Amino acid sequence: MKTSNLGTALVTGASSGIGFAAAKALQDAGYRVFGTSRRTGAAMPAGVTALTCDVTDNASVAKAVENVLATTGRIDLLVNNAGVGLFGGAEESSVVQAQSLFDVNVFGVIRMTNAVLPDMRSQRKGKIINLSSAHGFIPAPYFALYAATKHAIEGYSQSLDHEVRTLGIRVALVEPAYTRTSFDENLIEPDHLLDSYDAARVRMAAVVSEEIKKGATPEIVAATILKAATDPDPKLRYPAGKLASRVSVLRRFVPAAAFDKSLRKMLRLPV
After folding, report:
1. Active site residue 132
2. 94, 89, 81, 86: which is closest to 131 by C-alpha?
3. For this structure, is 15 an active site residue?
């Protein structure tokens, strides 16, 4: 239920999964929400204004932000959720494919952030939430390039938060683990598969599918995004869901060798 007017929120990748749930949660909480999708006419939660936006295109990003500002005059919250996954051995992807992945998951975040920061700076107020992942702070076999994009987002967000904090703007990371979405069904396949990785890749695909089925719901991640957006005592990182919270603690306190062994056991890789 909407309780107050919390300002204007812009959520990328809001037509499905975590983005859809986040747009709905923010709308229900009292934000006026604009949600983006690459597809014109994509379904959005009730009350959310749909915008067409390709985060890999500078002009498309600029137009989406201009449309929001023309309507409401301000952007108080940006949720950088749009992203894609790539599953396979790191060696199985060309540099061109890796660049394409980074263009969405990293440079897309940078494009959106650069587009909203001038308005946030002028009003000396704003919050930017970047969707990272547990793969942003732990190893991710057969998701090496995807994990690299999330590690990049972690470093970018931590540094940016220090730069803009004195301007009234804060940056936060939301870090889900496996989430019950169609993520595994939409994974990009490497552009040159190698026989050497076939058996391990098949085993890992089964693990990922199983973990997603029992993972956190998009609504749990959305609730974490809402908490990060409205927290009166802002933090840098917000793990989303029980598994993400547990892994975050273990990564900090368990010795590296023990963590490495536990990770390989969980992923059914030879210890």
Report:
1. yes
2. 81
3. yes
